Each structure stands twice: as C-alpha cells, then as structure tokens.
C-alpha cells in the first residue's frame, strides 16, 4: 500500500467568517503516509453508500486542476492548495458551514494509480507525554471522516471509461452533499440498486424449482456472498459465486444466467440495502422491534397477508421467561 505523496490542508467556514490553513510541503514520513492510507481505505471499503461514476461532460474547476496536475503543470502541493481555495469559494457562495482537514494521498500500485481525498475531523483527547505529564491533545477521529473520494488516475485519461470516480459521504455530510458533488462535477454511471435487484430476481427465478426450504437457503447464501464481497470492496462475479455457493438444482447457476440473461455483465457492484431482505426481515415501531432470518418464514413464523399479521412459534426461552414473569 505505497502512499507516494500526502498532504493536508484545513478549511473552516462559519457564517460570517472563513479561514483556511494551507500546508507548504507534502508530509515527509513514508511510514506515516502509509498509516494514513491504511486507515482511510478500510473505512471507505466498509461504507455501504458509495456512488460510482465519472466527471460530468461539462466538468468544472476540479477536473481542470486534476488534469493540470497529471500533465505536470501543477505540483502535487499546488494542485491540492488550489482545490481547497476553489472549495472555499464554493462554500462562501452557497453559505455552507464546514470545519476539518482535507487529506490528499496518492497511492501507487503495480496495476493502478489512485488519488484519495478525505475530509478528516479531529477529536479532543488526553496524552501522557515522555515525562508522564497529562496534557490535552487533538487526534484524528477516523470514525467521523466525512467525504471520501477515490479517483483512478489511469482511467480518467480514457474517454471510454465511465467508472473512475467513487464517492462516499460520512459523518455530518448531509448539508454538504449537493455542493461537494457539484464541486467535483460527479455524475452517476452505475445504479447498484437496480443491478442488485435484477441479479437477485434471477437468483429467485433460478431457485424457484427447488424445494421451498432449499430455495430460501440458497437465496440467503447468495445474498451473504454478495454482502461479503461488498464489505471487501469487491464486485460480484456470478461465475465465482456459482462455484462458491452450493446448489441443488440440476443446471448450474452460471449456465442458467447464460441461457436466461446472456446480456448480463459478468460482474456487478452489490447494493447492501437491497440484499438485506434476502438474509433477514426487520422492522420496528416505537413499541416493537422485529428481526428474523428469512429461512424462518413459513416454518416457525407465519405471515398472513390478508390480515397483515405474524404468528410466531418456537419462541426463545429467555423471552418466554420474561413473558411469564419468571
């Protein structure tokens, strides 16, 4: 995970005032740069609400700055400073509030080169120094990271590539989402929800000939496979899935796809929210919270759609004791 360049600047904007602190040089510690990257990448990967796309046709200043940097008309430091200056102008124009450090990291891999941008927040803490004295300190609170963006610097140069920019929003980003997407001139090119629902629809069709219990188990295991791939930041390849998830059907799942949906892409990016219903049914009101495995429906749990009621048997022993007041 070699981080070849890294720098951070601070931008603060409150109504009526604005300030930013721009660093003059990139960080000079390779080990610390890699530690930063090792914190950012897993956080980014675990987020479920990522958006995949590219720059819009009529892109603004951000794309221009990226290309100027890649063409070596700007140094990495100059590029990052100008991005913050432009972002500060946007915050002022739209009267938005923000406070935090903006981290820029370049990652060099054998088969890829990426630019990572993350909005980092700090948290107050306590420090015991070398003299064993207790003192106040500030440290990066990665759990509160805001926007995190990953830009594939190789694909951006190819007009036919349409999925080189990935965004994920985090803590406190809701008021800024529209402005930040406008700032980077982002346009969606992948509908992960539609792709996932289309794929799981085919899974349901494939398992329809199985006994009901086997069908539900198969759907759940497929959904769990897709969920794990998403958590690892990987796309789902349906051929790999067919090899990993056991099926009782006579026809293999990959052969079924080839016959039923030959136009289907071999890989897709799963949407976790669309997968949950194939693993567990959940719901809650102010008074009641219910969650159960999809395999339980039709066995220990029955649903009557005409009266919209659930009938539960085989209750947990601890719940029975509570209900009996024991």
From TrEMBL:
It comes from the Bacteria. InterPro entries: Nucleoid_associated_NdpA. It is found in: Cytoplasm, Nucleoid. Belongs to the YejK family. One of its GO terms (molecular function) is single-stranded RNA binding. GO terms for cellular component: bacterial nucleoid. Its main location: cytoplasm. Keywords: Cytoplasm. This is Nucleoid-associated protein. Transmembrane segments: none annotated.
